[in-house]
Specification:
This protein is α+β, with helices and mostly antiparallel strands. It is built from 5 helices and 9 strands. The chain has helices at 13-22, 26-29, 53-60, 64-75, 94-108, and strands at residues 7-8, 11-12, 41-44, 47-50, 79-82, 85-89, 119-124, 127-132, 138-140. A 4-stranded antiparallel beta sheet has the order 3-4-6-5, with helices on one face. A 3-stranded antiparallel beta sheet has the order 7-8-9, with no helix packed on it. Strands 1-2 form a two-stranded antiparallel sheet. Helix 4 crosses helix 5. The longest helix has 15 residues, at 94-108.
Length: 144
């Protein structure tokens, strides 16, 4: 060691860190704020329709059937996808749908280690695993 710098095979820590950051894909380097778009709901004849479903699914980067299954299970009802919207049997307040979607994001989208939304859901040996493409962390998530 020379001074306060730690060296490993001729490279100091700062040089190795810079090299690692430069090797990341550009989309992972961005530190912009990620947020779920506001959910737009319409009540029609005993049903709740999420009108901006396609937009929400694009931001979540998840299979829409998985997200719908989550909502159906948590609300205790059935639903179906139709022309970029989702229709759920029953009348549900926007606040309840928002709370469920916030929980979905926390449990199935945002990385627990780095806090980024760059994760994938993978099913391995009968369990769902959330894997982060930004930091490499992973964990088994609650059943969907």
């Amino acid at each position: 060691m020379v001074g306060n710098e730690k060296t490993v095979i001729g490279l100091n820590y700062d040089a190795m860190l810079e090299r690692a950051i430069n090797s990341l894909p550009e989309e992972l380097k961005k530190s912009e704020e990620w947020a779920l778009p506001p959910i737009e709901i319409v009540h029609e004849g005993g049903r709740t329709t999420i009108t901006n479903w396609k937009n929400i699914i694009n931001v979540l980067n998840r299979d829409e059937k998985i997200v719908l299954r989550f909502l159906e299970h948590r609300l205790g009802t059935v639903g179906w996808i139709q022309k970029g919207r989702v229709i759920i049997q029953g009348i549900y307040k926007k606040s309840r749908i928002n709370k469920l979607m916030d929980f979905f994001v926390k449990e199935y989208v945002i990385c627990d280690v780095c806090g980024r939304p760059h994760t994938k859901l993978v099913k391995e040996k009968g369990q769902w695993i959330k894997k982060c493409e930004a930091c490499g962390a992973w964990r088994v998530v609650e059943r969907i």
